[in-house]
Design the sequence.
């Protein structure tokens, strides 16, 4: 989220202790982090922020995905559970939602761009990843169907339609939209 006041970071990480104790915990953790990494990772200039030269996955996602449809896999912050710290858990859920949304948007953009440049096989990789990330994304299923068809694989296009139909039915109790049916 960018530079964060020390007090806010401390309160998120140690909500059950006094502000003074939380700040002390934060100071100790930052010291240990610096010692373990043997490099400054977090700068403390009134607010905590990443040291110069470091980046966050979310910010460099577009470049990483541009060369590899399978880059940026996994959940933001891994599978860490912050359920015992309500405010931190809310932040993590929101950050993960923003990450997934940005990922899906970028995958769709890359698939569309590659399709427009007739790089069908490469576009297929991004479309398949998009559908894997969000099986309810009907537009992604249509792109996948279209790319298989453009590649000359009608059977794969129809199989993609059947997977779309099945997931929409089982998850939402819906049938594919008119555009998807027409494409099939």
Sequence:
């Amino acid at each position: 989220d960018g530079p964060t006041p020390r007090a806010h970071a401390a309160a998120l990480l140690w909500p059950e202790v006094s502000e003074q104790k939380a700040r002390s915990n934060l100071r100790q953790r930052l010291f240990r982090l610096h010692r373990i990494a043997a490099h400054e990772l977090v700068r403390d200039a009134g607010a905590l922020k990443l040291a110069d030269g470091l980046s966050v996955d979310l910010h460099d996602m577009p470049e990483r995905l541009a060369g590899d449809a399978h880059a940026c896999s996994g959940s933001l912050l891994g599978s860490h559970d912050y359920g015992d710290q309500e405010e931190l858990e809310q932040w993590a859920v929101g950050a993960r939602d923003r990450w997934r949304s940005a990922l899906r948007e970028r995958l769709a953009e890359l698939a569309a761009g590659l399709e427009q440049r007739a790089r069908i096989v490469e576009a297929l990789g991004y479309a398949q990843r998009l559908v894997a990330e969000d099986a309810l994304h009907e537009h992604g299923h249509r792109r996948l169907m279209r790319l298989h068809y453009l590649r000359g694989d009608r059977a794969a296009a129809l199989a993609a339609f059947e997977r779309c139909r099945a997931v929409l039915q089982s998850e939402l109790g819906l049938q594919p939209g008119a555009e998807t049916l027409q494409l099939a």
Remarks:
- The helical segments are 6-13, 19-37, 57-66, 86-116, 120-133, 138-150, 154-172, 178-183.
- The CA atoms of residues 46 and 157 lie 56 Å apart.
- The first strand starts at residue 4 and ends at 5.
- The beta strands are 4-5, 42-44, 47-50.
